[in-house]
Each structure stands twice: as C-alpha cells, then as structure tokens.
Design a protein that fits this description.
The chain is of the alpha/beta class and 437 residues long. It contains 15 helices and 12 strands. It starts with 7 loop residues before the first strand and ends with a helix.
C-alpha cells in the first residue's frame, strides 16, 4: 500500500499501564496505585497492580516488536520506581530494571525512547499537593537529572511529559483520573507548574548536545456544531484549551488568553521569569491524536461556556471509549504543527483505535490504513514527518476505563498474561517488510 516513504515505525507504552510489580524491588506508591484502590473510579473495577507484567515480561514484548519490524520502543519511567518518595533516596533496583530494558532493546536492534513522565506521580509528592504545589518543579528537575545521569549514555530520544493537558485536565480539573482533584484552582496551578517543569527538564537534558528532547502533546480536532457565531467562538475556546495552551508558551507566544478567558486564572500562578524560561526550542514535537469533538455554546457552563455534542447525537459511530475515532486528525495536526516551524521534525508519537473484545480486529487495520494515507499526504506536502509510534503494543490498563478498551496490536490472556498477535500485528509485519525490503 503506497510508496516506500521510509517513515520509521515504532510503538509507545507507559509504565503505569503495563509494568505491574507495584510493590516489588523497592518501588514507592504512585497516585494511580492510590486512585485504583477505590474500585468505583475504574469502569471494570480493576487496578494496575499486575497490568501486563511488563516488569517480568519485557524481553518477550520487545521481541514481538522486533518480529513485527518495529524500529522504536518508547516506554515511560515510573518515577516512584526510581525515587520511591519522589525526592531523596534513589532505588538502585529501579535503575537496574530500566538498564535491563534499555540494554535489551539495544541488544536486539530496536531503539529505546524514554518518556520521563506519563501521569504516575509518586504519592508522597501528591501528599504535598502534587502538581498544584510549585515545589514539585524542583522535584521533577532532580528526577530528570537522575534519569539523565543513568540512561542518557544509551538513550538519545527523550519525551519529557506525555500529554500535559490530559494529565492535568482529567486529574486536577475533572477528577476522573488520578489524583482525582477537581476545580479551576487545582487546574490552573497544576497546568502552569507541569509546563514550567517540562521547560526546566529540557534545559537539564540539553546540557548534553547529543540528546534529542521533545514533548508529546494531545491534539483533539474541535469543530463547531453550527455556523452560528457563538458556536464558532466556543470551538475556538476549546481548541485553545486542548490544542494551544500546552504548546504556545514554548514558542514564545504565551498562553492563548484572547481566545481562552480562563487563562486569567493561570496568570495568578506565574512568577517573574517563568514565561522566559518556558521559551524552549524542542528538538521535535510528538503529535498524539485520537478523536474529534464537536462543541456548541452553553452560557451556563463556567469558564468554558460550551458543551460537547455527543457522537450519538451527531449520529456518528462511537468507539468503546465513547469517542468518535478520527484518523483524519493525524494529517490535520501534522500540517498545523508544520506551520509553527516548517523545519521542525514531527512525530506521530501516539495514535490508535479502541476496540471491544467483540469487535473484529480488521477495524484496526482499516484505521491504520487511513493513518498511512494521512502520513503519505503530509510527506507529499514536504512536511518534516519522521515516523509513527503506535498506541499500543499489548492490550493494557487504560486508566479509568480499566481493561475494557483494546488498543493493542497484541492481545493478552487476562489469566495467564500470555501474548497473542492480532490480525493487525500480522498485517503490519507484512506491510513493514514490503516497506523496507
């Protein structure tokens, strides 16, 4: 399908969703360990104490990646496995585990990428206020230094924070993810602190010129329900929230205050020099996109002044996640980011489709074929797209959705944890062998 365009293919995983081994070898508790103790918060009343047991089965999973023909294995570090209290003593057993993962990747010829933070804050730091507490920035800086000291000799590509807007929006505004906090004050402080922490982490890693350091941003296609002016303005507000708030400060554009009035709440937490520090020139952008949302004006909704129009009301198909899956968003956002800087390398660092147990995996193949068409289109437009890291390898713990959504190209028996390649994995293996033969 399509011409050989030398797009690099890889996969993305996250520690809290795969590792398990929640209390082994000195690991401290994370906010997700605490959050999942209340089973009502997770749709299938599950937890991530075992997850896919990547902690003990990492070689098997990396071997599957090699067999399929994937070139990159992106994984996240569990902060509380490295520094159990979030600050202070380093857990050497944690360092040893990630050294084994990195070394095994290199042994079998796959490139390891590290995500420093993928939503699993140490609980001891949350006890002090978590991302709402400005002191967490120094803790994050220290953590990034530890990662750099131990892993940067072998890992070249780094993603500092995965999807800040989702992490903070769901965890500190809506309360549907760990740590389950709600409200505009929690959100406003936390979003500024995590973005500033990321900028400081960038400066730490870039003391080594050999490292390529970027971020992974969640992008959601936002459209207005009608062409009425109030709905159009509502769409601009939500687009500013979802697709600009965590991006433009790094470009020196500041927070998008004109389109998003709630920025005035964030400004209360900005200290002198913060915005200057946040002007960082990432080596690459990681674009992550899954869904389309349609919004309409609703004056009675505080801060945002709008509501989502559900996919069911719009009579469009909905995934097991309740989303309108939108593979066309990949092309849209890659083109949009290229307008910020046409030279900047771009990665499609996450995309995927959630299926239920009952759905035919052929739907996933159809989804990725649409993604490929989008990537070929942007390459034809001379956009600097480097590759795709698909979400995800093995069906895993999908946060508040538990194990219900299946994003993996590899299935897992929940009892034995044995892996089984799905139709998509076999299709992808054949596709990649034709690309690189």
């Amino acid at each position: 399908m399509g011409s050989k365009n030398h797009i690099i293919w890889g996969v993305t995983t996250a520690a809290a969703q795969t590792e398990g081994a929640f209390d082994k070898d000195g690991r401290g508790a994370s906010i997700w360990d605490t959050f999942t103790k209340n089973s009502r918060k997770i749709k299938d009343k599950s937890n991530n104490q075992i997850a896919t047991n990547f902690y003990e089965r990492f070689e098997e999973d990396i071997d599957v990646c090699v067999d399929i023909g994937l070139k990159i294995f992106r994984f996240s570090i569990s902060w509380s496995r490295i520094i159990p209290d979030g600050t202070g003593a380093i857990n050497e057993k944690g360092i040893e585990f990630y050294n084994k993962v990195i070394d095994y990747c290199l042994k079998v010829g796959i490139e390891p990428w590290i995500t420093a933070y993928h939503w699993d804050l140490p609980q001891k730091l949350q006890d002090k206020g978590g991302w709402r507490n400005r002191a967490v920035i120094a803790d994050y800086e220290n953590y990034v230094r530890v990662l750099k000291d131990h892993f940067s000799d072998r890992v070249k590509n780094w993603i500092l924070v995965n999807e800040a807007i989702v992490c903070i929006g769901a965890g500190y505004f809506l309360g549907i993810h760990a740590p389950g906090k709600r409200g505009i004050k929690n959100f406003s402080a936390s979003i500024h602190h995590i973005l500033l922490a990321q900028a400081k982490g960038f400066h730490i890693l870039k003391t080594d010129d050999n490292l390529l350091v970027g971020t992974a941003v969640s992008c959601t296609k936002i459209e207005a329900y009608t062409d009425q002016k109030r709905d159009q303005k509502a769409a601009l507000r939500i687009d500013a929230l979802m697709n600009r708030l965590c991006i433009e400060p790094y470009l020196g554009l500041g927070y998008p205050k004109n389109e998003l009035p709630l920025v005035t709440n964030i400004e209360k937490f900005i200290q002198e020099g913060d915005m200057e520090i946040m002007k960082v020139d990432f080596d690459f952008w990681g674009i992550q996109t899954y869904a389309r949302e349609v919004v309409k004006s609703a004056w009675y909704i505080p801060y945002l002044g709008c509501v989502l129009v559900s996919p069911k009301k719009r009579k469009v198909p909905v995934s097991v996640m309740g989303w309108e899956t939108h593979p066309e968003g990949a092309e849209f956002f890659l083109e949009r980011f290229s307008k910020y800087d046409s030279e900047k390398p771009l990665w499609l660092s996450e995309c995927g489709i959630a299926l239920s147990d009952e759905e035919d995996d052929s739907k996933r193949i159809a989804y990725y074929k649409k993604i490929i068409i989008g990537m070929e289109n942007v390459i034809a437009k001379k956009i600097n797209l480097k590759g795709i890291l698909l979400w995800t390898l093995v069906d895993n713990f999908e946060w508040a959705e538990g194990y219900i959504p299946k994003f993996g190209i590899v299935g897992m028996d929940k009892t034995t944890l044995n892996r089984k390649m799905k139709k998509t994995a076999f299709w992808l293996k054949e596709y990649l062998s034709n690309q690189f033969d």
